[in-house]
Structures
1.
Amino acid sequence: METESEPYVRLATLRQLHTVMADMNTARSLADTLQTVADGVVTGLGFELACVNLVRPDGDLVVAALAGNSAAEALITGRVGSRASWDRRLNMGEAWGDLRFIPHTEGWVLDEDDVPQWYTDGPAPRFEDEWHPSDRLFAPMRTPGVSGGSCGELIGVLSVDRPRNGRRPGAWGREALQMYAFQAAIAISNARLRANMQRALVRLEREQQALRASEESFRQAFEYAPSGMAIAEMGGDQHGRILRTNDALCRLLGRPASAMRRYSFSDLVHPEDIGTLLRTSAEGGRAELRLGRRDGTYVWVHLRNSVVADAADGPRFLLTHVEDIEERKRRELQLAHRASHDALTGLPNSAELRSRLSSRLCQRPQSLPPGAVASLDAAYGHGQYPELPGGAQSAYEGNGHPAYDNNGHGFDFQSVSEAYDAFDHHVHTIAPEGETDDGTKGLAVLFCDLDGFKSINDRFGHNAGDAVLIEVARRLTHAVRDGDTVARLGGDEFVVLADGLGRADAQDLAVRLRNAIIPPIRVDGRAVRVGASFGIGWAHCGMTADEVLKSADERMYIEKRSRPKQHRRAG
């Protein structure tokens, strides 16, 4: 093409130009495309040197490919020029359509900037259109615009040098270079798109492989976990329904996996633990409760919840880890029982007795001075409330309307809580007044001391004494009602707590218990007898547990001294 005069162009030249453009679109990678673009300028457009400067993500331009001079290629390939310097170049010199030509008379100011460039030697031009070694010609490569023109985003710049005919390109040469740059921009954009797609496909494949590996890892961890695992639905009408269980959970509950899918955890939990289950949060919730086995028994388990999603915006599921803690719970219950029960008789010990007694008592005295609400208390059967210091009653009688709950207790007013700590939701314990049965029912405390026990210990040894205590504990337990407490205070002293008794009822109970104790007890082949002295005390709010026990103990000693010594034992 360089030897032809314009406008006449040989058909072979057009074929050659078509070939190099086709080669640009058949390159297999972005690097091959860039090198093909540079080579095409040299082979198809008649320039001895061509360089492709590619715009980087940060805006600067890097020398990505060079053709026509191996020394220049080694010198500047990979070097970077700033975007500001390139913008300066593309706004200097003469505009040849989309091309930019900077003659040597202007280009000398660019010799010291940061754009990578090469220098060629040669004589000064002898005529006007002859190419000077310091001339510069740039062909910007832009993405196609809306109307198909090359007015889009700058993706690179073609730098060309030394036309083979030694002359500046004419109209045909300029048009060919401009068209070539336009096609090169399309080819580079397509190559970038293919490269991005290939990277995306590789990344997607890796992510899918990682997902498959993760799913397989989760499946194996789920299926072969030594403790129970379950996946349940979350939200919707089927919230909580079990979708999948592992073998460990099926073995723990004695239920096949197909049967487990018919249940939710609320169907399997012990009725007393349903509240615990409902209070357990879905994300990170933990609970200890009992789950039902197929045989009707229950096993203690520790539940730990977490929420998992099928995909980024997919449905969420509840992953529940179920750990068998039956053995630990059994040990805990055994330890708690040992701490609160007598090792010999199995009865509640002194600490447990005081705990149960204290739970029924508060600091509110039984008898208080009548206040302004006494008439309402009498009408509704409520106990008296204390007048506040200084005669103030506003905490009870806002505008003449008392504020009580169903048990006659003041609601959470500050002055009330300061006077008596635990009014809310507490049923006050009261005691019969006087020595006659006035019909009042209260909490009777029967203090029992065995008569004649010491002589059995002394004569037959401690083993015999232990056997007597065990039998007395058994007889007392069988003689009281369900819900009454029989405790061993220590030594040969026992205490019975019986609620809802009047004075006559308590006396009858003491006689019944004494009659249960006095029959002979067989110990090592011999029959021994012990008697029992009972003191009846009454617990009411305003007393401490120790004060109640002391009162019953004193009454027991009064009753013991009131009987002749020979009558204290049955025989």
2.
Amino acid sequence: MYEDFKECVIRLMQHPIMSKPISFLSDSECLQAYDLIKQLIDLSVNEEYTQLDYIQMARLKYHLGELAYQLNTDNGTTILHYKALPQLLEKGGFDLSLRKWAELVSLRTKE
């Protein structure tokens, strides 16, 4: 595993996942990307997250879920990656409530 956050970022930036869709990656490329992203998440643990940090973490979790699905990981693991998204996005300032949805829909219908 990679112990340095910057090293992980550089490796991810150089990885094929940055230039082609997940569905076009080989299994070994998916596994490498999965390991890199998981390590980035582990290295990103911080008690003082900003809203942007939560959004960035949601991005990582989303791609971890996509890779887990592509790698045919057990459904429980894949679901756990996706289940983290709403909480992270809400902490990042996104209101995902049905109340907000209704508010926005009513604004559209008034126009």
3.
Amino acid sequence: MAMPLIEINDSALHRPPASEEIQLIHDAIILPLTLVVVERNRRELDRKARALRSIFAKAAAIVMLQIKADLTTNTKVLIRKGITVCLDNSSSGNVSYRYNCRGFEAAAAFSHEYIRNEINRRISAYNADIFTKDASARSIINRI
């Protein structure tokens, strides 16, 4: 089925993404990478026998649950807004992603150092949330 000409010629369809949409694209790139790092760290915690291991493992589980929830919400909004994001290529110092926002296509490149710093910043923010929302954290811990 063909798209109506009115929609093809609609200039709003091909305008660059707004700042909110740029943030959605950024989150679509960073959140999955953050989740991988937290999962890897949790597996490492599970392998080591330490006195506080269970506390750290539960904290990692809480962070993973919140990242997954944020990732699900972000993905739903991206779909609703007609935005797609995919890995373009990776060079020695940068990782490039392509995105399509209502017909407007562009690329975004990030250095490995930027990605690493952003992942650490996100993990720190999620960890801080655990201790500022202690009542909700307790209910999550009880489910784990």
